[in-house]
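step: validate -> pass
step: tokenize input -> pass
step: predict -> running
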Amino acid sequence: MEKILSKKNERVKQWKKLLTKKGRTAAGAYLIEGSHMVEEAIKHQAPVREYILSETIAQEDKNKYPHDKLYIVSKEIAQTISETGTNQGFFAVVEIKEPTKPETPEKPYLLLDQVQDPGNVGTMIRTADAAGFAGVILGSGTVDLYNSKVLRSTQGSHFHFPVFQNDLGEWFDWFKDEHVPVYGTELNKDAASYREIPAASRFALVMGNEGNGMNRKWLERTDKNLYIPIEGNAESLNVAVAAGILMFALYQQN
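step: predict -> pass
step: emit ->
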């Protein structure tokens, strides 16, 4: 166990770098914040490198964590590495571990095309986990999985639920080779109401950017593009809400 009180400490500088994608990539690690997230990391045996506690709560909680990985910091340092207005004083540095792609898709997948709102992305990951999907693929242009707002919105699902960050093209090829239908989402004359699509145990669902929808090159490669009929006067649905409706409606377990 080590106590750090200076914001100029080299380890503090390294923690701050984890607040950027470049820093996370260089370190191969990311920072989580909040007692719930730290508890979820422990619960799911995430590869935690370091635990960080604010001195304001350390006396009560320090014995919950392995002392060889524990750092006690001043409340000023805690605020420096926090991305919330009022931090709880709980942090951890977690090693980035890429999930393994299975040989064949046994369950549905959710693909995200240039979805940029962190709250939407985290919510869709959490919902896909709840719906029983096999995983989520964050395509090019989609916000980084390890963005702090994404992580908070997942509520810890990413610790045990596969989330990939790849170009969508290789996944489209994989689904085609495995004879798995790919459904896009777009409102046009050729799109079908999701109610017309039989529920199935294997498929891929693509959700597009909040403002511009799916990229045209992906729309042209889908087996069918779907829409959700809107009965009221709302112009559209939030992308995370729409994804939740479609995931639960289209998936039928064997």
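step: describe -> The radius of gyration is 20 Å.
step: cleanup -> pass
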